[in-house]
Amino acid sequence: MNFKQWSPTRWFWTFVLAEMLLWFLLPTVVRHVTPMDSTEGAMWGQYLTWGYTRDPWLNAWLTRLALTISNNHDWSIYLFSQLAVGAAFWSVWRLGKIILSPWLALIAVLVLFGLQYYNIAAVDFNDNVCEIALWPLMALYLYRACTTNRLKHWILLGIFSGLGLMAKYYTALPLLAMLIFMLSTPTGRACFKSKGVYIALLVFSVVIAPHFIWLPHHDYITLTYSFGKVDNHASFLERHIGYALHFFFAQLFTFLGACVLFAFVVMGKKGKSDWLGSPSFDLSCGFINQKKKLNAFDQNFLWIVGFGPFVLTLLASIAFGWKLNTMWGTPIQSLWGLVVVAMIQPYLTCAKLERFLIAVAVVTLLIGLGYTLSLTKRGSHSSANFPVREIAAKMTADWYQRYQTKLSYVAGPNKAVSYMARYSKDRPQALIGWDSTWSPWVNMKDFREKGAAFILMTKDSPDPRAGFPEYLLERYPNLIVLPVSKVSWLRAKPGQAPFYYRFAFLPPNNQKITGNNNENCYCSSSI
């Protein structure tokens, strides 16, 4: 087909599917192990409960589903990440076509290709990536529900809002922004006179109810973690001003990538190009030569729902002293491209569109190339090159050699046990931090009965050469502490320092102890 005859819909699906395919294949090929958050989600997903150490249940359950589909292969993690990104792009595309035109909606989607949140950061399937999909879906169906008042739109709004909160409590802020929008507009206020909004609320409550029933039975563990983000050791100014300022500038800096791409349709001459005679580029097909005046409803929606979560995040940090992680901004910018495009509505010519599409393709390839080179260069300390598969295999083999039984439990710092639980063929349950408080799925009586492998690793925990904490040796007097071992990094360069780790075995109760704490020495072995 003639390149100039393509419609905005065809361009949308071509770019989005190509982006999804690229960022599915790249980590599948260049990473030896999944990123940390994905690995942690896989560890959580071994036990289908209504909540986990840091988050509600959605991330862990989806990770479990992904690994079930692939028979525990990493590629399904990256596939689910890209499905989330694809859902975000589709939501912005659908919303953009309703508020603006297909061509401007296409631009609003493709400028997001310049943000790390939709490529490099999305490789790590986690709660933030779940929000990438759900926040734009919430916005889309809020708009549709308010403008059509159709029951299916209200139901979908309730489902996606409930799932969003079950991905991460942070979803409470866009929900608050949505409520503010509804209360601030005549159309939104009128919705409270119909049954749809209350059905949405009922559906939302059904989705989140199991988690909030689960919480008090587990000492409100996820809430404790969330509110633990207040840093009492920082100064007053740092807590109530510094954290918010850092997050503010970090998000603006991240959005510069989208602004660079958008510049290709803002700058340039306004003269007609030779494509204007093409059926795909006349006014009826969405090619515009003048701005569309937005009504008050659309303007309020874009500003409040689009930027509201960002503003509320800053205000919450200022008020409560919350320390904000830059990556929490992952879902925040989903509608920013649409807001900017709607407010500016650049005069489009076919020459501008051609330059823009070429720029998007080039930037996408350059980001992919940079990601590949950064992970595959020799000597990289990226988590992609952690030799944790080898360590997990040795841990499991050593356990079998000593006790001739399945390894049921592994204990240690969060990152170390997440990798061991993920890559040991026995898929042991994880006792995080040697504390059942952070691992409510672990039956401590069964833990002592079946025994466990304890582990320390560099890069993921304190230096293993320093040994296990004294309180552990007192709590488990028959713990067999093995010498420090080492293994080469994957893609190591000559002379690169090895990756150190240390095991300790808690023998099963029905097994004869085959060692003692005298094995706790600082000699090293290698594999």
Sheet with most strands: 7 strands, mixed
Structurally, the number of domains stands at 2
| Structure classification | mainly alpha
Strand content: 5-15%
Provide the succession of SSEs.
HHHHHHHHHHHHHHHHEHEHEHEEEE
Q: What is the CA–CA distance across the termini?
A: 57 Å
What is the overall number of helices? 19
Which whole number gives the mean pLDDT? Answer: 89
Helix coverage percent of residues?
55-70%
Shape call: globular
Would you give an account of this structure?
This protein has 527 residues and is mostly helical. The chain folds into two domains: 13-375, no CATH class; 383-526, no CATH class. The chain is built from 19 helices and seven strands. Strands 1, 2, 3, 4, 5, 6 and 7 form a seven-stranded mixed sheet that branches. Strand 1 (409-412), helix 17 (414-423) and strand 2 form a beta-alpha-beta unit. Helix 1 packs antiparallel against helix 4.
What tags apply to this protein structure?
527 residues; mainly alpha; seven-stranded mixed sheet; globular; LipidA_mod_glycosyltrf_83; Dolichyl-phosphate-mannose-protein mannosyltransferase; RgtA/B/C-like; transferase
